[in-house]
Design the sequence.
């Protein structure tokens, strides 16, 4: 893969992570006074892995670009 594709993959991971997070937040809005909602362990691990993967791909793409 060329360096541009690493940057694109990092961007796609970051955008998809934001989209999934937004969908989860929208799903919690029901129009009533809600209780404090906590995220489950699966989402926390999933969120962390996507974020770390996107950072690694961004850094690798920009470091090798120089």
Sequence:
């Amino acid at each position: 893969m060329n360096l541009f594709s690493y940057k694109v993959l990092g961007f796609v991971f970051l955008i998809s992570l934001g989209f999934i997070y937004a969908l989860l937040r929208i799903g919690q809005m029901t129009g009533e006074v809600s209780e404090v909602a906590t995220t489950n362990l699966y989402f926390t691990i999933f969120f962390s892995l996507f974020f770390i993967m996107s950072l690694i791909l961004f850094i690798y793409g920009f470091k090798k670009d120089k």
Q: What stands out?
A: The chain has one domain: 3-64.
